[in-house]
Design goal:
Layout (H helix, E strand, L loop, with lengths): L3 H14 L6 H9 L20 E4 L2 E3 L2 H11 L6 E5 L5 H9 L2 E6 L2 H13 L5 E5 L12 E6 L8 H5 L1 E14 L2 E11 L2 E10 L13 H9 L2 H9 L1 E2 L6 H5 L9 E4 L7 H18 L3 E7 H11 L23 H15 L9 E6 L3 H15 L1 H11 L9 H7 L6 H18 L7 H21 L4 H21 L6 E4 L2 H4 L6 H4 L6 H9 L3 E15 L8 E5 L7 H7 L4 E5 L4 H6 L4 E4 L10 H4 L1 E4 L1 H4 L2 E8 L24
Helix pairs in contact: 1-3, 2-4, 8-22, 10-12, 13-14, 13-17, 15-17, 16-17, 17-18
Amino acid sequence: MLDFEYARHRMVEAHIARRGVHDRRVLNAVRRVAREQFVDEGLEEFAYEDSPLPIGSGQTISQPFIVAKMAEIAEIEATDRVLEIGTGSGYAAAVLAELAEHVFTIERHRSLAQQAERRLNATGYRNIEVRVGDGTKGWQEKAPFDAIVVAAAGTSIPLGLQEQLEIGGRLIIPVGEDLYSQRLVRVTRIAANKFEEEDLGGVMFVPLIGEHGGHDENASVREARAPPLPRQIARAAEDLPQIDDPAFGAMFDRFGSRRVVLLGEASHGTSEFYRARAAVTRRLLQRHGFTIVAVEADWPDAAQINRYVRGGERRSDAQPLFQRFPTWMWRNAEVSEFIGWLHEYNRDVPGHARKAGFYGLDLYNMSGSIATVLAYLDKVDPEAAAVARERYGCLMPWQNEPSTYGRAALRPGYRTCEEAVVRQCMDLFERSMMEGDGDLLDAKQSARLVASAERYYRVMYYGGAETWNLRDRHMFETLDQLLEAHGPKSKAVVWAHNSHIGDARHTDMGTVRDELNIGQLCRERFGAQAALIGFGTDTGTVACASDWDREMEVKDLNPSLPGSFERLCHESGKPSFLLDFERHGELGADLAAPRPERYIGVIYRPETERLSHYMDSSVSRQFDAFVWFDRTSAVTPLSKPTDSIGKVPDTFPFGI
């Protein structure tokens, strides 16, 4: 059962206080309100995510941060009388009631008002009055108010609300005719006929419907059908040829001079994303001197592919490729076709050093990496192999359940396991200074992977940002090692999910959860020599699972959510295009405001999509360019590999 009290306190610290709400009274008020009691049945597990939730009648319960922020800037005192416009679920009214002496709240949807009143009564609030009506008119009979908080965006500031303010009273309201570009305004009544306005920054709210200063419903529908941003996107979009047309890859020549080109995907199961990345990569290899293809895959499995594409022989102890869940992510026809092309391409490349390689960046498959280290040492130094076996032996009792190792590693005695695997890694790095063996890079990287995975097992016990950050740092450091090993003029193409290759500093990952990723680290390391290119879609099918370690399914994608970046792209009316934010600075500026962006990993749950698959992102800052396919299809999986026996399981329990 979920610990709601713990989740509530964690939400306040991680999503509200850390993002800039500092008033202790406000923070304590949010801590006291049980948000799970104000959401619809079945959504309780998402109550303490910092996101809006559906509540019926096309409305949402506001995200906790914006509720707290508006309460803070309203400067509510314990003796204040507060008017709220837009009751919704009643959650914000409850927070305001923790701060003020009395709260009056207006909701235009009768069903929502009645439901909110029942919830507020059930949770013991006796200082809140609920009314059904036009919020733009205010509540004259109860005026004046010390503060008025409006939870919907008006096209202008209703004069009637300003006149219902007490002298010194504050009105907090989002204002803007464009649904995608609103400003949060604070109006303070200085005197009977004098008001002071402050612009507090960009926001995005549902429209304020009403007689005075609000949208009429028909106008809101018309605006939603033809907002300006899709027209801007359509003008800036560069139409893409068919993926199989050589002209498709040529569209990306503009990135050919970069050191690193990172190609994303909005899901791990979409054919067009894989095929498009393959087409771009072929062009970069053939025309622009790239020799490294680094992918979000297990190092040991990718190392076998690397041997094949570079003309090497298969190792006698090699295991079937990509046996762990999700097998379809790399065992699919789209990847197989690219690997076949890469093998043929390398046949005509003179000199082993100039051949293109295929490398895995991830820290999964610990057992495969241990086997690689031992096989290398068995060949070059049997005594060192014996030492390595002793060092790695401490990991084996926990090979079937990583979290068990995480708990065990809390005890001081298990510090020696960490020291052993790090020592083994250092020994191979020291060996690399003295030897030039062609297999040494593989062994050295495998030792790094074991050391990283050991630490991963430990931090998994705690969860949180450190787990994600360790993984992405490992992937970035692997990429950096590959570039260093291939020389100062080496260039790499990276295939990974949008959540890894888009700069995390411009998403909720960085602003709320303190997570970083490969894209951020590449920008910090390579600056303008890194190109971050995201991918997205609206509808179609996707290969996925409903839960971790379940069978693959092909599911229909829900159409993108209104207000999301994907919906803007869909409303441009174009089937596929490239958006180059560096060439269209004005559009980039207009798309800089955070808005929902869809992220699907190997798990896809359409029934909870807004909560489980969308995250607020500033797309034009997150990426340098974006590739759009309006309708997409699922990847074609290859035959299922044989089950793995006695192998260390996957160290990352999530879908991306």
